[in-house]
What we know:
Blueprint: H1 2-14, H2 23-37, H3 42-48, H4 53-62, H5 85-96, H6 101-108, H7 112-122, H8 134-145, H9 152-155, H10 157-168, H11 205-215, H12 226-234, E1 274-275, H13 281-284, E2 291-298, E3 304-310, E4 316-320, H14 344-355, E5 365-368, H15 377-384, E6 387-390, H16 400-409, H17 424-435, H18 447-466
Parallel strand pairs: 1-6, 2-5, 5-6
Antiparallel strand pairs: 2-3, 3-4
Helix pairs in contact: 2-3, 3-4, 5-8, 6-7, 7-8, 11-12, 14-15
Amino acid sequence: MAGQRKSERSTRRKLCSPGRPPVWQRESLCRFWQGIAAGLSNEEAGIEAGVSAPVGSRWFRSSGGMPPTHLAPSASRPQGRSLSFSEREDIALECARKTGVRAIARKLGRSPSTISREIRRNSATRNGDFNYRAIIAQWHADRAAQRPKVSKLAQNSALRDYVHDRLAGLIATPDGVALNGPVVMWKKRRAVHRQNRRWSLAWSPEQIAQRLKMDFPENQNMRISHEAIYQALYIQGRGALKRELSACLRSGRALRLPRERARKRGRSFVEDALMISDRPAEVADRAVPGHWEGDLILGLGSSAIGTLVERTTRFTMLLHLPRMEGHGKTRVIRNGPALAGHGAQAVRNAIAGTIMELPASLRRSLTWDQGVEMAQHAQLQIDTGLDIYFCDPQSPWQRGSNENTNGLLRQYFPKGTDLSQHDNDALNAVAHALNTRPRKTLGWKTPAEALDQLLKQHIIEGVAMTG
C-alpha cells in the first residue's frame, strides 16, 4: 500500500502542471503563422493574431523565421481526427449542461467514440471525477502529441561533419592554397541589411543533400533533406549545426525570410547591333556549347567585376577590372577612357583576354545586357570572332544563367563593398569554387565536370572525323 502511494506521488510529480496552460498563445501563434504564409510582415501578422507588433517580431526571430511543425499553416487547421480548441470549448459547455456524448457528437459532426475518448483522456480527475475543461484538455492533448526525437545531424557524426565542411569550407586556389577573406561578425539576428556572407565554399543545403546520394550511393545513413539542414541552422534548440553558419548561406540571412525581388534597371546603349531575337535556335536550347552570357556586378566606389557564364555547362569565368591610374583625381584629359575600370575599352580588353584562352569550339556567341560598357562590341566581335547579341531593355531574365550566377557570386562579393580589393588570384579562386560546386540543372554534376566531358567528347569527335 505504501509502495502504491509512493508510485502515485511520483506519477503526479512527473505530470504536474507548469501553471496556466498557454493555450491562448497556441491559437495566436497559429493565426500568426497563417498571416506570415499569406505574405504579411511580422508586425502585421502579430496584430492579426491579436498581439502587439513587437511580440510578432519576437516570435518570428525566436523560431528563425520557420514555423514549428505543429504550428505550420497546414497543421493549424483541424484535420481528420484532431480536435481544435474551439471544439474542445463546445465540448466543455455541453458537458456542463449534462449533454450526452452522442448529442455532442451530432452537434460537432464527430464520431461518438471521438468525443468519448476525448473526455476520458483529457479530463481533470483530481477530485475523483471527470471534470472536463477546454484549457486543461488542450494542454493534455499538446503534451501527448509531443514527439521528442533527436535530429539526424545530432546523432550521425559523419553526416554532420560532411554537412558542416561543405557549409563552412574555406575558399582556396586550384593549387589548394587557402585565401583569407573578410572577417564576418555574427550578429545573432538579421539587421536592416543582409549581413556579409562568410568567405567559404558554401554549398547550398539542396546541393549537399543531393550530392550525398552521389558520394555515398550505398550508405543509406548518409541521407538528409535540405529542409532538415535549414531547420538545423534556423530553429533554436535543434542542435548539431551552429546557427552562425547561416552566414555561409547564399543569402547570408540569419532568419528565413521571403525572397526579395528587385528589378535591375540599366541604361540602353546599343545601336546597330544584333538583338536576342536574332539568335539562332541552337543558342536557346543549349544543345551546343560555346554560347556565353555576360554582365557586370557593381560594388562600392564604382568598382566592378565582369562575369561570363557558359549556357550549357554554367561554367563561370570572372573578369578582373582594376581601376585605372588617376581614378578619383581631377581628370586632365576630357572625354577620355573611364578610369573606374569598367568602361567600354577595359571591358573589351578583359573579355578578349579571357575568352581567347578557350578553344574555338567554345567561342561561338556572347549575350550581354544593354549598357555603355559594350559600346565597343563591334571591335570585340572582330577580335574574338564571337557573335554578340543584346537583350531587350530592362529584361535581365533573358540572361537567366548569368543572372542566377551573379546571385551566387554576391555570396562572395556582397553589395556595398569595394570590389577592387579582390585581385586576379582571388577572382580565379572564387570561380574555381563556383565551378566545383554541384548544380541541380546539371544532374548534380559540377560545371567543371560538365565542361570537361564536353571537351573530351569534342576531341573524340574530331579524331573520328579526321580518321
